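Handout, section B. The chain below has 211 residues.
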Amino acid sequence: MKAPYALLVLLSGLAAQGAQANILYSFDADTQGWTLTDGDLTYVSSGGNSGGYLNTTDTNSNDMALHAPVSALGNWSAYLNGTLSFDALNSNNRLSDYNGFGTVTISSGAQSVSFDLSPSASNPPNNGLWTSYSAVLSQAVWGSNLASVLSNVTSLTLSTENFVSSSFPDEQVGIDNISVTSVSNVPEPETYAMLLAGLGLIGFSARRKKS
């Protein structure tokens, strides 16, 4: 194996070192298995952030909530101290007045943890723009049993309820780019140093060959 090629193989391995497969639902083709309770769920093929997105419409007095597909569940231990995030759009531009919006509940059998990624009653804002929400999956944020729950996730729900009303159908909320990212996807400083050193060796080898 020639030296430059061997170095390239080494660098590729370093770049991938410690990386975990992120969970990402961009809804560019369909609902990707997500379901909604206490509301109507429709797939919109354009106008998302970007591409397609999910539109949720309130149909009763209960809190409507999105549910992750079974394929997304399982052992999430690799995502401890990572980041959970999603984008939201106030689709019918009504002024939000309910704190329930943005609450994510992660369950493992009978135990669960919850956190409101959007504690303000004015979310999502009625400005016609997409807004991003995120939270670190740390025990300081979600509670001391987070690690135990993440070891075997059996359900995940996201509340899209954002308006108090007595008439239905009511508020509409768009959701896009639901993701969970492992902290290990960010290379360590030592990895960057080794990458730079390897690139320097490749450049030196190329100059020697030319001379």
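Note. The first strand starts at residue 23 and ends at 25. Compare this with the example in section A.
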